[in-house]
Amino acid sequence: MDKGLRNAAGIAMMAAGFALASWLVFGAPQSGQDDGWRLVRMALGMTAMGTISGGARLIFWGPKGERDGFAGESVTDRA
After folding, report:
1. Which of 35, 52, 60, 74 is the right S-S partner for 66, CB 3.0 to 4.6 Å?
2. Are 69 and 62 in contact (CB under 8 A)?
3. What is the DSSP letter of 78?
4. Are 66 and 74 in contact (CB under 8 A)?
5. Range of the domain at 9
6. Residue pair 78/46 in contact by the 8 Å Cβ criterion
7. What distance in Å separates the CA atoms of residue 37 and residue 41, rounded to the nearest whole number?
8. In whole angstroms, what is the distance from residue 70 CA to residue 6 CA?
9. Predicted TM-score of the model (pTM)
10. Where are the alpha helices (DSSP H) in the chain?
11. How many domains in the chain?
């Protein structure tokens, strides 16, 4: 995947995750004591977190051979 396309997809995924999370916080209907809706909201919140972290992973992606150092440093950074 091209780097520009990967960055654009990552930004779009993060925007969708933030939109879902903000809808859950500010606009989701409060249904009182309904346990079913509470579980759906929890699942949607976990989906939003996964979407945001997946978008960040797309933006800041690096080949596996370059990520073997501590805190993201590459082998060439240590030398």
Report:
1. 74
2. no
3. H
4. yes
5. 3-78
6. no
7. 6
8. 24
9. 0.72
10. 3-26, 35-59, 75-78
11. 1
